[in-house]
Design goal:
By secondary structure, the protein is an all-alpha fold. The chain has 3 helices and no strands. The protein has one domain. It is elongated, with a radius of gyration of 17 Å.
């Protein structure tokens, strides 16, 4: 059961950022077919969204812990 749980866990922020760097490098090289580029571009967009959501949640948690109102800026 642990093996299955590990397979479905979301990657860590660090893993996602590393993969985004790899994707950017692959796209910059221009060596992939259009289909391959679209596939990894989509992967990159999903990872970027996950990273944004993670960072937004982390910011909210920090604000809550420090006693700041999450709506105040």
């Amino acid at each position: 059961m642990n093996i299955m749980a590990k397979k479905t866990e979301a990657p860590s922020l660090e893993q996602s950022l590393k993969r985004l760097e790899e994707i950017a490098t692959l796209l910059d090289r221009g060596e992939l077919s259009i289909d391959e580029q679209l596939k990894i571009y989509e992967e990159g967009m999903l990872l970027a969204q996950q990273c944004r959501e993670y960072l937004e949640q982390a910011e909210l948690k920090v604000r809550r812990l420090s006693g700041e109102d999450a709506n105040a800026e």
